[in-house]
Fold this protein.
Amino acid sequence: MKITLNPSKKQGKISKYIYGQFAEHLGRCIYEGIYVEDSDIPNVNGMRCDVVNALKELNIPVLRWPGGCFADDYHWRDGIGDKDKRPYMVNTNWGGVVENNHFGTHEFFELCEQLGTEPYICGNVGSGTVQEMRDWIEYMTFDGDSPLANERRKNGREKPWKLKFFGVGNENWGCGGGMRAEYYADEYRRYATFIRNYGDEPVYKIAGGPNEADTHWMETLMAEVRNMAAGISLHNYTYETDWNNKGSATAFDEKGWYDVMVNSIKMDKVISIHKEIMDKYDEENKVDLIVDEWGNWFNVEVGTNPGFLYQQNTMRDAVSAMLILHIFHKHCDRVKMANIAQMVNVLQAMILTEGEKMVLTPTYHVFKMMKGHMDAEKLQLDYESGNINHEGTEIPKVSVSASEKDGTITVSMCNLSLDEDEEIELNIEGGQFTTANGEFLTASYMNDCNTFDAPDTVSPKNLDVTLDGTTMKLTLPKMSAAAVTLK
Ligand code: AHR
């Protein structure tokens, strides 16, 4: 397959926030996965050192918290102050377990500081109040003399935190209150009014947007709240078949592999549908599309709590993640943030833990490989990849995306085929490069994953690349994801 790349043909900036993450009070994501108390597992202020160190390698730009559905059941005051005195609650969304509120606002900002990531907090519209939300913002971000800012100081934080991204509710059409679009739009306007700017930078307010292709929800928000929202969220998960038939994360056949590829590509269609509506109301492209929940959602691992959403992660997840990240690149004019669900031990996670053990998933490796795209200029690529016909649906055999930042070009590519390697010849127009370094991820079997006994079954290897100045050649193995850096 021949690809032509011209470094002068730029197509817009790929926002680094597309590589964002999401951590909810769900299952073993926060507790055990990230935060351990009174534990022999090495930690700094409760944050697991192994997990934090591995995540730091990803340069995570933004982290969404505390939910998800949990956000609209969360009352921030329960999670501040002396831990022994914090009230506990039952996490009714996720497994009915006791939530002791020991990981709260201060702990979340501590995690963000350790990771070097920007916080994105989702507030409670469904069961909260306007006052509760406005007070939380003041507590976190006001530098002056006020009862709330002084309470923060009393709880150990003198200076306000920097908080840019704030979500006004989550899935308010469902777990966030079962609202109609019209009702939520009015509620959004009321809540958003009281989100004051205490810091130097205005709060970037994100309205709770549609599920998948719910055009009525998007149309209503664009009509009613576009002047009061910096972004509108979109949730779009990928299943093997659909919500009622999610499939197994590991026990799938060839059909299951290609079904997930077909369903991953649907992200392109869903974004395009919403962009059309957004363009109609907002020609100047002022309102961003924030895909703040996405990823593969399969049946929980056999024997685990169904409310914990714990699933393994295979080569299929790695290829699907790259495909979808390429779709975000394609729509980089409107998609300015995306947060994969979720960071540790839940859904399409970066990391799985069991006691003191930790494994990095194939999806983790893809995120690490693609770091070069963050805040880089997307480059035009011309190529014909050929298609795979899966039960009457055509999907590309190979997906490629390229970007340039500070003179370095990153090219990421994945081969969806289960049986054919692909010979790649990339011709660079008007540019001379002297070094090309690449790595790739593949596996012996499509179902291969990293387990606590065999943590490196799916791990990156060096990719053989030849470069003669303007032509780069490589073999992209079947069912693989790869990235090359050209300098
Ligand atoms: O990520 C798991 C759940 O999926 C989130 O809590 C919710 O927002 C979505 O339905």
The chain has a mean pLDDT of 97. The radius of gyration is 22 Å. The first helix runs from residue 49 to 56.
